[in-house]
Amino acid sequence: MDTWCSIRVIQWTSVTSTPTSTFVLNRPLGRCQVITANPSNVQHILKTHFHIYHKGIIIRTHISDLLGDGIFNVDGENWKFQRQVASHEFNTKSLRKFVETVVDTELSDRLIPILSSAAANKTVLDFQDILQRFAFDNICKIAFGHDPAYLLPSLPQEKFAVAFDTAARISGERFRAFHPLFWKTKRFLDIGSEKQLQFLLMNSGHSDENFVTDIVISFILAGRDTTSAALTWFFWLISRHPDVENEILKEINEESEAASFEEVKNMVYTHASLSESMRLYPPVPVDGKEAVDDDVLPDGTVIKKGTRVSYHPYAMGRSEKLWGSNWAEFRPERWLDMRDAAAGKWSFVARDPYTYPVSQAGPRICLGKDMAFLMKRVVSGVLRRFRVVPAFEEGVEPVFMAHLTSKMKGGFPVRIEGRAESF
């Protein structure tokens, strides 16, 4: 299935209305898939009956060449072990401080100078590419202490980063194939995209025996692609909503330039704006499990053993049932308690993770969920100094694309303008 079709499928599933927000898709050759945007079902899948819904053979097979036995592609004891180790690391203050230092250094030494140069020279940048490079440098330095120096003025074509992009894209395309036999035949015959993927893997040193590599690859996918996707759509949305941008700037002005973790944590309106952006454009628009036993979802949908069950954050974020008649509006205020708004004392009101499963939920909830909001440091660092102005051709709107993570089709062309104001 080509890119155009994948876009149409995700749009179709988001607007399909059923009484229970669940429908059964009978695919060719007797394959059945259940797709749900019902929070009760999501809680059932991700928490209450977690023991029944695994990654499963189908999903593992589709992405095993890329992720191997990494944490996002395993179940059982292997998953528990990796989860325990990662959980311990993510909960240490030393790691949090290290992450802060890495992000701040990449921001001040690389991202800001590149944006300053673009502003001075009035050049157009692909901001999606810039943010991916920024996130790639950060996650590589954090995960294994290596600086790939991917975000430089020359915008170098770092071989691993390019190979990773291609491998992730091809792995995502497998889910959209007419039938798994289609891509497996291509792999057997060593043709097309599967030939390209096997070439990349053989030249990367990646193998099933390389357990550490599998783990690192998984964290690169999580730390680079989800962060850059979230920020890409965030900067596009605020460019269309100057009132939101002004509120964020007021908040930035109240913090020091080298804001501490606690100061960043208190940027409530910025936090709400990022949450609202990810409601409309989730970094992972759809995720799925495989039932290892027969089951019945809370809405009465019968699940047979072996059925693939997908939940749909993209559709859920656009559901009138969940977000009201103004669901299409970008309104950070829907995340805020406004009782003390006059005094500037807004407080953030989180939605339950089964209505808003952007960071998953239950035992597999994203370990880096809280650290992900270090994105606020990036927002503060960029908006304090610059306006990000989209440079699409007249009449062109960005197109949301779903691979393993979401992308903006064709990139995000922008012009950078320096701010006359001093923040």
From TrEMBL:
Q: Which InterPro entries match?
A: Cyt_P450 (IPR001128), Cyt_P450_E_grp-I (IPR002401), Cyt_P450_sf (IPR036396)
The keyword Membrane is annotated on this UniProt entry = no
| A Pfam family it matches | p450
Annotated binding of heme, by residue? C366
Q: Which SUPFAM superfamilies match?
A: Cytochrome P450
Q: Name one GO molecular function term.
A: oxidoreductase activity, acting on paired donors, with incorporation or reduction of molecular oxygen
Q: Per the record's keyword annotation, is Translocase included, yes or no?
A: no
Which cofactor names does the annotation list?
heme
Recorded hits in Gene3D superfamilies, A to Z, give:
Cytochrome P450 (1.10.630.10)
Q: What keywords does the record list, in alphabetical order?
A: Heme, Iron, Metal-binding, Oxidoreductase
Q: Which PANTHER family match?
A: CYTOCHROME P450 (PTHR24296)
The family this protein is said to belong to:
Belongs to the cytochrome P450 family.
> What is the name of the protein in this document?
Cytochrome P450 94A1
Species of the source: Camellia sinensis var. sinensis
